[in-house]
Amino acid sequence: MRIEDLSASELVDSIAARQVSALEVTDHFLGRIEALDKELGAFLSVFPDFAREQARRVDAGQVTGRLAGLPVAIKDNMCTVGQKTTCGSRILENFVPPYEATAVARLRAQGAVLLGKTNLDEFAMGSSTENSAYQVTRNPWDPSRVPGGSSGGSAAAVAARMAPLALGSDTGGSIRQPAALCGVTGLKPTYGRVSRYGLVAFASSLDQIGPLARSAQDCALALDVLAGLDPRDTTSSDAPYVSGLQADVRGLKLGVPRSFLSDLAPDMARVFEEACQVLVGLGATLVDVQLPNLSGALAAYYIVAPAEASSNLARYDGTRYGFRAADAPDVLTMFKRTRARGFGAEVKRRIMIGTYVLSAGYYDAYYLKAQKVRTVLSRDFAAAFEQCDLILMPTTPSTAFKIGEKSSDPLEMYLSDIYTVALNLAGLPGLVVPSAPVGGLPTGLQIIGRAFDEPRLLSCGHAFQTATDFHQRHPEPSYQS
Ligand code: GLN
Question: What is the pTM for the complete model shown?
Answer without folding.
Answer: 0.97
